[in-house]
Amino acid sequence: MSSKNKGFKWLTTVSMLSALLIVSACGGNNNSSNGNGSAQPSPGSTAGTTDKAPYTITYLTSQSRMQNAMKDMAEALKKDENITVNFEVVPDNQFQTLLLTKIASGEVPDVVDINAPETFPVYNALENFEDLSAEPWVARLNNSDQYKYTDDKYYAYPTTAPGLVAGAYYNKQVFSSLGLAVPNTYAEYMAVLDKIKGAGITPIYMSNKDTWTTQIPMLVNFGAALGDNANETYTDLIQNKKKFADVPEFKQALTDFQLLVKNGYVNKDHVTATYDMSQQMLVEGKAAMVVSGNFLLTDIMNKWPQADIGFFAIPYNDTDKVISASIFTGIAVMKNGKQVEKAKKWLNLWTQPKYQDINFKINPGLPAMKDVDGGELHPEIQAAYDKYLKTGKVIYQLNDFFAPAGGFLDSKLWPIYVEVAMGKSVDSAIKDIDKELQQFGKIKKIPGFE
Description:
about 15% strand; membrane; SBP; 12 strands; six-stranded mixed sheet; Multiple sugar-binding protein; single chain; D-Maltodextrin-Binding Protein, domain 2; alpha/beta; 17 helices
């Protein structure tokens, strides 16, 4: 077993499979017909499902990624193509471990959800993901070069285009009832937190059980503290030209992150709180804000369509820019799967407007495909795109630059952030981060660490 998988030897495939929630997309009667009594054709075809041999695709995804629209898409595709999709839905904090275990055992799903290219090094994309460069859907991509990996090949179908909008998502009714305005400076932001706390409402809801959410306030703080120096600093860190201890802005960001907890601006149960809980607390007005990405608003509106949630870029360091990302969510085909060609055929069908439009009608966003309708964006997200992304008022996140250290972020860095939220010394945390990165870089043979 390779060094990257040694940490998972204890975890058997059987024990992890018990954590799976298997959701089978049932498509109903395969002989469903249109108004003329003939079988519904698939995009670009004339034959109905009665002419097509059935098969099943296993699709590994995480709880936060699984949307009802995906089941609707699968049902529609089954009616057209006689293909069933079995969604294997895994808790977010178990997803990476399970996929690595499956890769090590050779028992892989047909397709898998990933963050690309951020997690490509984690899963050794060149070895484990099928090269999709020759697939028909590639020609339909908008700005196709942004989806290529370092070898100029495509290893994932982008389910959405890059477009992260990270900042404060707030309950408008809470703000209105307390007479609060959106803050323009960090001093104003702190005053807002004080007033909310004084009213007996949790100012910021943190969900640190799901450590991927813990990172977001730090992405905001660190990026805003660096400002125009962000890209250069991130590059120096991943090339081992600088350590985190050499970057005063990181200590500043981590200290202020910890102060949010120390000053009582965060829910007391933040260590055990989950992403799902954060949505409910925000909608119910028990929390005034959640620091997150625009996916939070999409998830909330799917569950609570009448929720009145707003957005503002946190003015950390008095910066009027938004934290964004160049990474994208994608679907990869496992190279060692049992039916690679069928999986690629299914993926090409999955990309078609007929099915993608089902998703974007329910979950409006930025499609990667030229011929897919992204739907009507929530007004708050549209306003953020117009104000920040379209005008270049963007600072890219640390994660975009740490792809070579894939696995370090979620296994080392984010848990240390949680420890800081629990009271760990900031100086001690920074020493631990640098120590872990040095060890990780040497093991992974990242250039500059060898």
